[in-house]
Amino acid sequence: MARYIFITGGVVSSLGKGLASAALGALLQARGYSVRLRKLDPYLNVDPGTMSPFEHGEVFVTDDGAETDLDLGHYERFTGVPARKTDSVSSGRIYSTVLEKERRGDYLGKTIQVVPHVTNEIKDYLRIGEAEVDFMLCEIGGTVGDIEGLPFFEAIRQFIHERPRGECILMHLTLLPYLAASGELKTKPTQHSVKELQSIGLAPDVLLLRSEHPIPEKEREKIALFCNVRKESVIAAYDLKTIYEAPLAYHREGLDQAVLDAFGISPAPRPNLTRWEDVMDRITNAEGEVRVAIVGKYTQLGDAYKSIAEALTHGGMANRTRVRIEWVDAELFEREDPAPHLQRFHAILVPGGFGERGTEGKIKAVEFARTRGVPYLGICLGMQMAVIEAARHLAGVTNAGSEEFDHEAGEKRFTPVIYHLKEWVQGNHVVERKLGDDKGGSMRLGAYNAKLTPGSRVAEVYGTLEIEERHRHRYEVDMTYRDKLEACGLMFSGMSPDGKLPEIVEVKGHPWFIGVQFHPELKSKPFAPHPLFADFIRAAVEASRLV
Ligand code: GLN
């Protein structure tokens, strides 16, 4: 049975709990343990699938087709353990399950209450898959003291109480603010936040303290004493140059040792940190720099394309080069010529997206990349834009567009080369969807296989002819245009196994032009960069040498 580590946050939000959890997972792996990470989110949305990227950053998609919190992306990138649907649970999901059960009569006429019905449902979630791993790390979203987080904290209190002694610990992440006027780090907010935890029956075993300044021994002792935590378990989390430094930095500060001590695991297995040393070596000893433009819609918010930014960084690590990412608002190219804006970049990426806004600008960016021989990677909507661009400018379908934009506008304006996908094969059954279906979960979601064309660039890049990648889309390139588009130099070099759905398109004779209907960024890791990103950056490095 797994041991449980609960990770909570206090004082302020955005302290990097997800990252700390992921790094701790990586450190436990380095000591030979198996781990699974799980996120409990207090918000009432059933899942983040319908939330705007402005609200909640990127939606991370799992192999089993769940639309989850972006923290699951951190977990996967640091541990390489593929996240599952059951690794992300919100209050909304818990309440809707409880209410469904109530409607079905499962509770036999009882009054339904937060305690025990909601808390029991949360505890059931916590236990899923516990037999499979040594450690289950459960991060609770939000900050201690939030009203909506209470059922989760109460469920955890009960869970810890019900398990045998020594099987669960709690790690609390807080902030030590620095007062410049007095030149001091202040411990009071941390003390208050631990008090808040104690008032709901929880006591931290390990404190992780975010601080911009070195924490003096005296302050560490004070925190240990007042928060009732051993001094060696008061761990500093200083600002890092890169998130990938976290495992090594936290290890140096003694985080994994403190966690194993809290469980009474002695002697602790020695860690093997070579994976992370190599990752850091690739980052610190990178030579040169390439500039990549991401032409998208949510450019003010880096978190909206979190996995893409990370995958590009991994691509840089594969080539021992730094990748400078610049966000370019697609709508700019609807007013201005893209050339002066884009010509200083060594590669262009158009990411996934929904809705018509900005798409004409994205098409301009595609045209620029295609006609100027600039390496181009189109992801999901970015692939669809590449097809529309080719249809309009090469295949003579001058008003080519996507059904998505006509549906949104409520009128027919385009010749749809991208159509609404209503039926597809998953494994050995057919999935059907209607346009009016529920917005949440009405998409082709999760991992699907694709077959690659021998001799194509993607076959060379992947080094295999069968791949599995994650999807999240409703629309698809219409294959009735295949011959017309292929005659103009586009090649559909990746198809679904039944040969019906195009998965990859590439431009023949172009230095590097690939569009993919799936999201390769979701599977890239710092210690295993995704081949598409690694080769895209290789092409960017080559382009940078030509300038
Ligand atoms: N909006 C497009 C579709 O639904 C693309 C989706 C995406 O980029 N994730 O097919």
UniProtKB/TrEMBL annotation:
Domain Glutamine amidotransferase: 303-538
Positions of UTP binding: 13, 186-191, 222
Residues engaged in binding CTP: 13, 146-148, 186-191, 222
Residue ranges of the region described as Amidoligase domain: 1-265
Active site: 380 (nucleophile), 519, 521
Regulation of its activity: Allosterically activated by GTP, when glutamine is the substrate; GTP has no effect on the reaction when ammonia is the substrate. The allosteric effector GTP functions by stabilizing the protein conformation that binds the tetrahedral intermediate(s) formed during glutamine hydrolysis. Inhibited by the product CTP, via allosteric rather than competitive inhibition.
GO CC terms: cytoophidium; cytosol
Chain residues that bind Mg(2+): 71, 139
EC class (word): ligase
Binding site for L-glutamine: 353, 381-384, 404, 474
GO molecular function, one term: identical protein binding
Record GO biological process: 'de novo' CTP biosynthetic process; pyrimidine nucleobase biosynthetic process
Catalytic activity line of the entry: L-glutamine + H2O = L-glutamate + NH4(+); UTP + L-glutamine + ATP + H2O = CTP + L-glutamate + ADP + phosphate + 2 H(+); UTP + NH4(+) + ATP = CTP + ADP + phosphate + 2 H(+)
Record InterPro entries: Class_I_gatase-like (IPR029062), CTP_synthase (IPR004468), CTP_synthase_N (IPR017456), GATASE (IPR017926), GATase1_CTP_Synthase (IPR033828), P-loop_NTPase (IPR027417)
Pathway connected to this protein: Pyrimidine metabolism; CTP biosynthesis via de novo pathway; CTP from UDP: step 2/2
Keyword terms of this UniProt record: ATP-binding, Glutamine amidotransferase, Ligase, Magnesium, Metal-binding, Nucleotide-binding, Pyrimidine biosynthesis
EC number: 6.3.4.2
Binding-site residues, ATP: 14-19, 71, 240
HAMAP family in alphabetical order: PyrG
Family: Belongs to the CTP synthase family.
Matching PANTHER family: CTP SYNTHASE, CTP SYNTHASE-RELATED
Protein name as catalogued: CTP synthase
Lineage: Bacteria, Pseudomonadati, Pseudomonadota, Alphaproteobacteria, Rhodobacterales
